[in-house]
Amino acid sequence: MDIILIIIMSLLLAAFLFFKLGDIFSPWTITTVIWLAIEVMFLFQGDLLDPLGNQFHSCLALWLPIFCASALVTYYVLPRGHTGQTLSDIPDINQALFNLFYVISMVITPLYLYKIMQVVMMFDSSDMLNNIRMLAVYGDENYGFLNYSYVLNQVLLVVGLWRYPKVPLWQLITIIIASLMSAFAIMEKGMLFFLFAGVLFVLYEKRVIKMRSILISSAVLILVFFLFTTARSYREDADPNEDLTFLDFFAIYVLSPAVAFEYVEEDLTPQLGSHTFQTIYMFLNRFGGDYEVNAKIQEFVWVPLPTNVYTVFQPFFEDFKYKGVALFAMFYGVFSGLAYRMARNGNSVGKCLYVYVVYVLALQFFQENVMMSIVNVIQFTFFTTLVCQQRIGLGFFIGADRSHTPQAPPENSDAITTL
């Protein structure tokens, strides 16, 4: 089955290139390359992990063609833009709101990190990094508006990358530092990967770097993630024989989710989509609802290495089995195709949103990052739209009335002014 899927995906990728359907960062190309790479790497992983099973192969056989067809149809059915803007052009934004969000981020990001460190330092400082992660996963602290630092930094990062060099280098560097602080505050690799994917994608589209640079950078990123994970998992009393090797790390975070998916079973709870709509149910409970909310951290399985990530298919399969995988493959395809068309049309919001799509699609071998992070997706889209629109500025919020602002007469005007 592995060989058959590798041949089919290779032919599919060749067809995209031959007929010039999109580019290397089009949704259908990213998805095909990701799953082709996973299948090829399994041919050389030896006995480190259990073999891929029929459940995974069946879902992949559903996901790939439905996703690619939906994305292609959506992209080519939607009209091309007529603004003259392209994906590589610098987008127009509301500079006043961008600067406002920048100032807010520069204030609340250090405060957010400070609040977390206050709690963490109450415990053993030798186990600080692991305690930060445990607080992020199991803690119930509510930091109010400070929680928005994560998504604001994502928005500022993407907009700043597209606007550079109109956004000065010093400002972009401080945004990157704030993004790293957000990642450190919860010891979470998602922001690091978002930063990595955003920088490489934008630089590639601006023709600053080539594919060789992306491949080299990817190798460096894997090494950084390995060091990040090792530091996060370090405990002073840990058994040195249990240290995570680089090969174990690569297998756990890149290859094991596909194997672990074989352990995923349909959840027969009567609550509709309890895994797919987990974030929505958690939100409803805050307003007096009484719904089942699944734990943030999922159970570990041994494949034979321990892992608790189960690819993008996991929540859809648990809630709706194979028809869920097929349905959300179409949803993902339409969503990705729409964002790609908007980006190619030069739409400012679409260009920023597609950076998020690239990040999501690149991690589909690992976990689902749209439905289970729907609040973050909505917030990212909302703040990006605010920054990119130019009708509503700071004057709207402070009540400035410019409707009767006197206009200076044009120079060299021959118009006669009468009383």
Q: Specify the number of helices.
A: 15
Structure class: mainly alpha
From the spread of the alpha carbons, the general shape counts as globular
Distance between the termini: 88 Å
Main β-sheet, spatial strand arrangement:
1-2
SS strand fraction? under 5%
Radius of gyration, Cα only, in angstroms? 24 Å
- Overall average pLDDT: 85
Q: In this structure, how is the largest beta sheet organized?
A: 2 strands, antiparallel
Order of helices and strands: HHHHHHHHHHHEEHHHH
Number of strands: 2
Level of helix content?
55-70%
Outline the low-pLDDT stretches.
234-241, 397-419
Task: Give your account of this protein's structure.
- With 419 residues, this protein is mainly α.
- It contains 15 helices and 2 strands.
- The protein has helices spanning 2-18, 27-43, 54-77, 95-120, 128-138, 149-163, 169-186, 189-205, 211-233, 246-260, 278-285, 314-344, 348-362, 374-388, 394-398, and strands at residues 301-302, 306-307.
- It has a two-stranded antiparallel ribbon with strand order 1-2.
- A hairpin with a 3-residue loop joins strand 1 and strand 2 (306-307).
- Helix 3 packs parallel to helix 12.
- The longest helix has 31 residues, at 314-344.
